[in-house]
Amino acid sequence: MSxxxxxxxxxxxxxxxxxxxxxYYEAGRQTLAAYGVADFTWAxxxxxxxxxxxxxxxxxxxxYDLPASVDELLAAKNxxxxxxxxxxxxxxxxxxTFVELLAAEGVPMAVAxxxxxxxxxxxxxxxxxxxxxxxxxxxxxxxxxxxAPDVFLEAARRLGAAPSDCVVLEDAAPxxxxxxxAGMRCIAIPYVPAQVDAPEFATAGLLLxxxxxxxxxxxAFDWLCRTV
Length: 228
Hints:
2 domains, HAD_sf, single chain, alpha/beta, hydrolase, 8 strands, Hydrolase, Rossmann fold, DNA polymerase, domain 1, six-stranded parallel β-sheet
């Protein structure tokens, strides 16, 4: 019998399973440069970590007074991101170990992300994580992106799991807030060091203040086994 019977695990994608934020930054920088915004920095990008692409470009439109529609900006950014994602996105090795440990126990898993469905599929295929992660939900498929709980609740529905039986892995404060709002436990692995003390992370069942440098697949697996 599985040590984790009854538990389902839902992963955020970007910054949690894979190190894709550099690609997202570059896609954003290129998109904004095409509309005359030439000084978009990594610090500017960090404010959007954990927020869906649609919400991000909607904010850009207002912040930078862009002439393009939100749909046009979304398509432009997604196109650039897909080009970068297909050419190389790295899965965090310890996250891959964790996925494999869960798969060996037959734990149902899903990915719930602010990325487009095409981007999620491309990244999972490119990293080989699609071998274990078959259920995917994009914020574009639900009414509201993170910090609303919609993507996590939809992932639970597709897994046939009760929200209270789900554990979310998240790197960003909006995602931790979304997990809490969904009634799910959260393992938080902050991507942006300056956000470690964000109140949203205080709701996590396990907060790894050192981010990915502190995360190990075996330790996360052992924590789940102890807290079932």
